[in-house]
Structures are given as C-alpha cells and as structure tokens.
Design a protein that fits this description.
Layout (H helix, E strand, L loop, with lengths): L2 E6 L5 H15 L3 E6 L13 E5 L13 H8 L7 E8 L5 H12 L3 E2 L4 E4 L4 H15 L1
Helix pairs in contact: 1-4
C-alpha cells in the first residue's frame, strides 16, 4: 500500500478543495493518504511518504505563495530526486505559467511526475475535481 501526502496551501479554499479531491482519489485506489497544510510538512517528512502531491495557487506574478508554501517546497527540493510527485493548484488570472515553471523546477530536481498537473481557474468545477481524483489515483499506482 502506498503512503501518500497531499500537501497544500490555500488562501480562498479553492486549492484546499482540490487537495480534498486528490486525497479522495488516492484513498479510492487503496493508498494510505493524509492531507497536510504547508505549515504541517517539512523536508524531513519527505522520507515518510512514497509519493507527494503538492498543491499551491498562483500568486502575484504567477509564483508560488511566498511566505509559507515556497519556503517549505524549497526545503523539500533536495529530496525530490526520484520521488513520485504530482502538482495541482488554482489561479485567478494568467495562463498557468506558474505551473509550467514549477513543473520544470521539479523535473530539474529529478522528480518523477506521476501524471499531468491539474490547474483550474478559481473554484474547481466538476471536471477539475475529477482530474484531481485522477491525480490522486495516479500517485497511488
């Protein structure tokens, strides 16, 4: 059984709703999965999990949230090599540049992306929730 962490930061609740769907998808595939905020997770936690889903909305000039999520993620980067991960998040404007940049960072760190990242504009609709569940399921496989 895979042990999966769904780690997220959410300012409006949109990315939190996505995280809950990722968690559901992982559990439906039989994984032991937990949902944690960025403040509850750190680099030492990486060794505890077989796979990690990271979720963060686009902030400012299409960047990761800089006070809580980004410092946690930067600390985890050295542990991404060969780690199975997936990325998700919401945005209010732009075209998803923050996610493309984030994916490239993870690939550069040697992470194994389990599936395509999931982004949605504002609150997740039914399609986004379905995609988030599929993301969780892909981590559990």
């Amino acid at each position: 059984m895979s042990k999966i962490a769904v780690v997220y930061w959410s300012g409006t609740g949109n990315t939190e709703a996505m995280a809950a769907a990722v968690l559901d998808g992982a559990k439906e595939k039989g994984a032991e999965a937990v949902m944690m905020t960025a403040s509850e997770f750190d680099a030492s936690s990486m060794d505890t999990f077989d796979a990690v889903a990271f979720g963060c909305p686009s902030m400012g000039a299409e960047e990761l949230e800089e006070n809580e999520f980004q410092p946690m993620f930067f600390a985890c980067e050295p542990k991404l090599k060969d780690k199975k991960i997936a990325l998700f998040g919401s945005y209010g404007w732009g075209d998803g540049e923050w996610m493309r940049n984030w994916e490239q960072t993870c690939i550069g760190d040697g992470a194994v992306l389990a599936c395509d990242s999931v982004i949605c504009n504002d609150a997740p609709d039914d399609d986004a929730i379905t995609a988030c569940k599929a993301l969780g399921a892909a981590l559990a496989e």
